[in-house]
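User: Hey, quick favor. My workstation is busy. Could you predict this chain's structure for me?
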Amino acid sequence: MPANLPQAAQDLLDAPTFVTLSTVADDGSPHSTVLWVKRDGGDVLLSTVQGRVKEKHLRRDPRVTVCFFDPANPYSYFTIAGTASMTTENGFALIDELSHKYMGKPYTWDEGTDNVQVIVRVAPERVYPS
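Assistant: No problem, here it is.
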């Protein structure tokens, strides 16, 4: 059953707040990565590249958590538990939008590579406020 994001969580996700995505590794241990994020309604969108460790983990097991805190008050934080889905459609558009949001410039790090950008969509099932 979908969970609603509190307004404070929405505000943080709409700002250039860094999040930590945790996935389940092959051996069952957690694997965490700091990422840029965007909110799409009640879902959380992240970007990765096809073949990276987190993308491989998500293909095998889509269960995730996304944790983030208010930079002005690190004791105020949220953890979202949910299931991720992935698509490559419009993958570059998302990473470029995130680059503008976080860096203030276009995304150019993958120019000249054959990297395939992947959009990770997390549908919140539970939201834990601090």
